TrEMBL record:
Protein name, per record: EamA domain-containing protein
Record key words, sorted: Membrane, Transmembrane, Transmembrane helix
Record-annotated membrane-spanning stretches: 28-54, 60-81, 88-107, 143-165, 171-194, 206-226, 232-252, 264-284
Annotated Pfam families: EamA
GO cellular component, one term: membrane
Limits of the EamA domain: 2-129, 146-283
Length: 286
């Protein structure tokens, strides 16, 4: 379970890093729609090859709900990033972990004392790893509202996808349905944006999107794989523990930026990464 959850954080962290780089050159909505479309095509092939259609059942409604909530949360997140400082928005969005942890506790999960301590330490580490800005101009209430809505949405997706299937082939089908809904919701939002005068393509036009297809495919597939490994982690052990370990992805994103873009980590980010690792060890020992 721990290996699956940590793999989830690695994949989400790399997907966020790649998506962040792409949105510097391509409109965010286009990145979401194209990457999720490519992921849906790949998952569709897997579903056909494995005969996962036979796993269709009432649980798929959890995947549909996750597919509707996910893009809405992502749009709120991107809007908050556009309105406010990333050093505030990113750590607050990591509080998404509260939703699946709360769901697990409500369902009767009771982690040990070491795991409770690990969850507290790891969550604090994740928030600090985002580099929260402790000084500067106050953040607009709209920015905070959008960020908290995004966090609630991300957490809801984690809780829903954990309930979407009970078998591996069923998971393939659930992830495919989720991606199709992602594309439908994101595509509708992109259409509305274009109708209102927004841009669907970067200034360089369609060739820029075509050139970025491998990177877009990576972002979409990494996100899908992360959803899959999280579902496996949640099914193999306590959701409370799996959710906290999976939420370590901001640490991965920060380290990727440090290693590939030579961005310097703030002291608070370094401390956050250390706390996140300490929390992980506590969770693993419980």
């Amino acid at each position: 379970m721990i290996a699956f959850a940590l793999t989830t954080s690695l994949l989400w962290g790399l997907a966020d890093f790649g998506g962040g780089l792409l949105t510097r050159r391509i409109p965010a909505l286009t990145v979401v729609v194209v990457s999720q479309t490519l992921a849906a095509v790949a998952l569709g092939a897997v579903v056909v090859a494995t005969g996962a259609w036979s796993e269709a059942g009432a649980r798929l409604w959890f995947a549909v709900a996750a597919g509707v909530v996910g893009p809405a949360a992502m749009l709120c997140f991107y809007r908050a990033l556009a309105l406010g400082p990333m050093g505030v928005v990113s750590p607050l969005a990591a509080l998404a972990v509260v939703v699946p942890v709360g769901a697990g506790l409500a369902l009767g999960e009771r982690p040990g004392a070491a795991q409770y301590a690990g969850m507290a330490v790891a969550t604090a580490g994740v928030v600090l790893a985002g580099g929260p800005q402790l000084k500067g101009a106050p953040v607009q209430r709209r920015t905070l509202t959008l960020t908290l809505v995004a966090a609630a949405g991300f957490g809801t997706v984690l809780a829903l996808i954990a309930e979407a299937s009970t078998t591996l082939t069923g998971l393939y089908l659930a992830l495919f349905v989720q991606r199709v809904c992602n594309v439908a919701v994101g595509g509708a939002a992109l259409y509305v944006s274009v109708r209102r005068g927004g841009a669907a393509l970067p200034p360089q036009g369609r060739p820029a999107v075509t050139a970025a297809l491998p990177a877009l495919a990576f972002v979409g597939l990494a996100d899908v794989a992360a959803n899959g490994t999280y579902a496996l982690a949640a099914g193999a052990g306590p959701v409370t523990v799996a959710a906290v370990l999976a939420s370590l992805y901001p640490v991965v994103t920060a380290l990727a930026a440090r290693g590939l873009l030579r961005e310097r980590l703030l002291r608070v980010q370094t401390a956050g990464a250390a706390l996140a690792m300490a929390g992980t060890l506590l969770l693993a020992s419980g």
